[in-house]
Amino acid sequence: MVIDLDLAEPPDEPAALERFPARILRQGTPIHRIHHHELGPFWFGSAEPDSDSGGRFDLATPKGSSYWALQTEAAFLERLARRPITMLPFELLDRFQLSTVELPAELVVANSPVKRARAFGLTAEFHTTGHYPVTRRWAAALARAGHRGLLSIPRHDVTAKLRSLTLFGRGGEHRPKGWKAQTTPLPSALLDSMSEWGIRCLPIPFEVQTIDP
């Protein structure tokens, strides 16, 4: 099947992406990840470019990608609201936790949601397409060019104001040097804030009132 995308392939030469737009995340910047309570936050997933499974910016084995966000709302949307749902039960949400890391040192990452990125061949489909082979090739090319990570727009953010952060590293579960995560149940303030996105977080009712016909 031929996929017609308004998105260029990445350049073959790493040097062509060395001047790709970048952003400095300052020391102390908080980043967030929502994950199942039985799993830790420091997972770097791997996938071959043409694999049917895996994430948008996964690198091929032995490397991997770890998905975080600059805002807790972005972490929530990407992990728990991938479909156009309007309600999530507490019984489901109780299975997940929020981990937050304050960066121990500044982190320079490729910055894709900026005007200059278009000159390198990117369009908004970079953030929204469900055809992952091309986005994985972009991630691999940026990593080869020396970028330690990538800022992008969460696919499920209709405002395009939030930011996802993909970290590049070796595949598997490992904690980056100096990183410490504070892990908590999903905060009630975060769950309440999702009502602004049209998502209500509610308990499953045990009794439902019925009316005789």
Describe what you observe in this structure:
The chain is of the alpha+beta class. It has one domain. Helix content is 17%, strand content 26%. It is built from five helices and twelve strands. The chain is globular, with a radius of gyration of 19 Å.
Distinctive features:
213 residues, alpha+beta, three-stranded antiparallel beta sheet
Q: Mind describing the biggest β-sheet? A: 5 strands, mixed
Low-pLDDT stretches: none
Number of domains: 1
Distance separating the two termini? 52 Å
> In sequence order, what are the helices and strands, one letter per element?
EEEEHEHEEHHEEEEHE
CA gyration radius, whole angstroms = 19 Å
Quote the beta fraction.
Answer: 25-35%
- The largest beta-sheet arranges its strands as 1-7-8-9-4
What is the residue-mean pLDDT, rounded to a whole number?
93
What is the strand tally? 12
The percentage helix is 10-25%
Q: Which shape, going by the Cα principal axes?
A: globular
Number of helices: 5
